[in-house]
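Re: the 421-residue chain
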Amino acid sequence: MTIADQVTGSTIAGTGKPAEARPAEAKLRSAAPAITLPATGERELRLDLFRGLALWLIFVDHLPPSLLTWFTIRNYGFSDATEIFIFISGYTAAFVYGRAMLESGFVVATARILRRVWQIYVAHVFLFTIFLAEISYVATRFENPLYTEEMGIMDFLKQPDVTIVQALLLRFRPVNMDVLPLYIVLMLALPLILWLMKWRPDVTLGLSVLLYAVTWEYDLYLSAYPNGFWAFNPFAWQLLFVFGAWCALGGARRMSRILASRVTMWISIAYLVAAFYVTLTWYVPQLSHFMPRRLEQWMYPIDKADLDVLRFTHFLAFAALTVRFLPREWPGLKSPWLRPLILCGQHSLEIFCLGVFLAFAGHFILAEVSGGAAMHALISLSGILIMWGVAWVISWYKRVADKSGAKTKNAVGNADLAGGG
């Protein structure tokens, strides 16, 4: 009998009697956690595939706009790679630490989560240091102070002592370094999220929606240094993270009928087509004449910092179609052509940090050498190849150097940012 059977009151295997007919079983059912965890085993390659895709898209989007940027999804709808990244992070974090919460308890699970938060925080500080050194060297070597201003480190050069403290507090961040601080904050909230989901997953998701609504109503945010606010508001983006965790802990299974419905499919397609048309009006102004004025007034601005509801629903439509048309058993997931994406997705923390570093290097080359489409394509493809090569080296090292790899593979197989697997 599974946890799901205990929660729903299904017939007890081998008895032919409903659970309510036996007092002992009914008592056990009332005490059982209301979540269902996926069985351990072969890792979910779809998560790795789309996490790797998100990393590649984030890298290309961080480069100056050019012809190749038209291949990223942000030009064809309201959401972009960030939504994919945060949703999968929530899903994998719940998969890894939800199991620890059930098997080892709240204290042990919290300790493991905090250890991972510390690892991500150290990676962020290390990336911050290397990124500052890279920008400062280029700006000094080529006598171009515009790099420091464009990359947002001018305040560091003016007040390095104050700025470093603010950076350690996650309040000061150069350009392109906003995702890891968001993830650190979300992971700090994960023990409470999992503890609530252990007993009332739907109520937990409802509380997340409520916090999202309150954030929009009362303009909740975290301030940044020296002024402004976080580029990704944790009070709003937590909804996508919690939704990913909710899906991992049985929510996706409970939604299977809805996701399989043809009505859901056509609604999703219609929404994606409508979003595509709206984005076309941004590049072809003549099409905006066909947009109702009231609709424009209601729709704009589509706020990324606070995860606009249009962005969230766009991601939901995209995810619904992905689940429908890309099953877990799809043979293409074993294709060598997709192996580079999957490898990068399996080592997302390292590849994300590398991508930030490579994006500025590419920005520098485009500014100093050539900004043409051919050079942009060469830099983009070279960066992707470097990310793939580093991911392959990391995978080889873990496979060869970690003698316990076979033992731990199933435990953290679907997580990198979450569990470091």
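Residues 1-21, 24-30, 405-413 have pLDDT under 50 and may be disordered.
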